[in-house]
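step=encode ok
step=design start
structure_in=
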């Protein structure tokens, strides 16, 4: 399928969005210690590139599902910052009515069909969403985002199979950050195991690249979305990336020693924001003033979202009954 070249506007949009998301997540990390956001928090700082690259190819009617680490996906898909922060504060105005917290964001108004804490859990749900799109003959597609750890769950293989057999308009979007909590890949997966080979064995077009490389992340995401939209068949994308903070929480945990300094230094020297800056500079645009502007605007947005969240009411006790399943 013919690929359109990536334009300077694409680069600027990508850059603006990753800077905004990182500024938001850094503010969440700084304010988490105040203990007003009582839910566990899995931040995506360092691995914003894939979320933005794929979301830029989607429209509001395309659907997305995610995992415990979903803030970047939700924001990139057009989620509402005030509703996300209110959700962390457990307030009625949160996107999940204050009942879900960070790991359970849902907002159908922007096509964000939900995130859950059970690893791999949204993969088969996404197949159902894509099946509904197929049956209603829309041109829309579904993207399910998950980490490489989720590919070790049985539902991953089962869903690849059904998506292939039923020709579902579904993108399996794997963000490979190399770790499941503290475990690297080597004790978990055979060195001969390649995620894209598993999906290819199910007859699924599969693409792999580096999610911190702006050109690669955008080109792969664009190719996949065009393919799924046109052919009404599934596709798998694997983008390598890296999280900078601890698995869960606002702190740096480099002192624990489960990741080598060499590896951390490598990924920090290959940071997606620095890479995007370089790409923009080569096209003749100064990234520094754009970065400053985005950061200032986002800080205002953040202050406003936190102010609103603290003033909003908690959900009424009767509401819990509507969300209880036993
Ligand atoms: C079925 C299940 N098993 C284990 C866990 C505990 N757990 C939470 S997050 C996580 C790591 C998942 O790694 P990955 O899917 O690569 O995502 P990442 O955290 O790296 O973004 C684990 C094992 C869980 N929530 N659900």
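sequence_out=
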């Amino acid at each position: 399928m013919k690929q359109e070249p990536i334009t300077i506007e694409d680069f600027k949009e990508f850059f603006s969005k990753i800077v905004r998301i990182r500024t938001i997540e850094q503010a969440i990390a700084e304010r988490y210690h105040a203990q007003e956001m009582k839910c566990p928090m899995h931040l995506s700082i360092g691995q914003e590139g894939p979320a933005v690259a794929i979301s830029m190819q989607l429209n509001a009617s395309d659907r997305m599902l995610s995992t415990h680490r979903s803030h970047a996906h939700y924001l990139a898909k057009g989620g509402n910052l005030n509703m996300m922060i209110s959700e962390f504060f457990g307030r009625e105005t949160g996107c999940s009515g204050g009942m879900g917290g960070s790991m359970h964001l849902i907002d159908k108004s922007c096509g964000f069909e939900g995130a859950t804490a059970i690893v791999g859990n949204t993969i088969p749900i996404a197949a159902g969403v894509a099946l509904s799109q197929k049956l209603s003959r829309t041109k829309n597609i579904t993207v399910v985002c998950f980490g490489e750890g989720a590919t070790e769950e049985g539902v991953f293989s089962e869903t690849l199979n059904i998506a292939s057999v039923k020709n579902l308009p579904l993108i399996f979007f794997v963000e490979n950050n190399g770790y499941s909590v503290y475990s690297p890949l080597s004790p978990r997966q055979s060195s001969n195991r390649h995620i894209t080979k598993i999906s290819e064995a199910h007859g699924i077009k599969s693409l792999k690249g580096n999610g911190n490389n702006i050109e690669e992340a955008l080109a792969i995401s664009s190719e996949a979305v065009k393919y799924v939209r046109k052919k009404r068949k599934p596709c798998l994308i694997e983008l390598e990336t890296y999280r900078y903070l601890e698995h869960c929480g606002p702190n740096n945990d480099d002192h624990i020693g489960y990741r080598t300094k060499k590896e951390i230094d490598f990924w920090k020297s290959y940071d997606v924001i620095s890479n995007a800056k370089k790409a923009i500079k080569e096209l003749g645009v100064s990234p520094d003033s754009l970065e400053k502007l985005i950061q200032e605007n986002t800080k205002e947005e953040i202050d406003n979202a936190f102010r609103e969240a603290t003033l909003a009411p908690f959900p009424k006790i009767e509401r819990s009954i509507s969300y209880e399943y036993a």
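step=design ok
step=annotate ok -> The pocket of thiamine diphosphate is lined by residues 68-69, 117-119, 146-150, 177, 179-181, 247 (CB under 6 Å).
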